[in-house]
Amino acid sequence: MSSIHLARAESDADILRCFPVMAQLRPHLMEAEFVPRVRRMQQEGFHLARLEEDGAVRAVAGYRFHEKLFSGRTLYVDDLVSDATRRSRGHGARLLGWLLDQAKAHDCDLLELDSGVQRFEAHRFYFRERMKISAYHFTRPLRAPATP
Fold it and tell me: Which among 11, 14, 92, 139 is least buried, having the fewest CB atoms inside 10 angstroms?
């Protein structure tokens, strides 16, 4: 029987251990810049959580709490990714369940996330988890994208 552990990544070492899985979703990130960037984001209310199975990080989520006039207190998921080599083993569902528990514990009215229109597999997962499409998300870039 495998051992599952879900927790926030608080130490620099735990944050860095999340990088290989997070980079599967965010390949533009550089490992050397990951911990300092997460630390800066934490000053703005960002949290990084991980699901470990037998001591290895298998899923990662970046999230924050905020309040909106139209929806009330919200847990917003910036990033949710499970290790591509270990998909369909329930890691993403367990981490999403943990996030829902966090939202309830922080008296949130809503859990929300955005998912790129090209991420069909992720969309199937979100629908299975009883999430729905509730809005379009529009963006307007203000500078040219960085090249790695």
Answer: 139
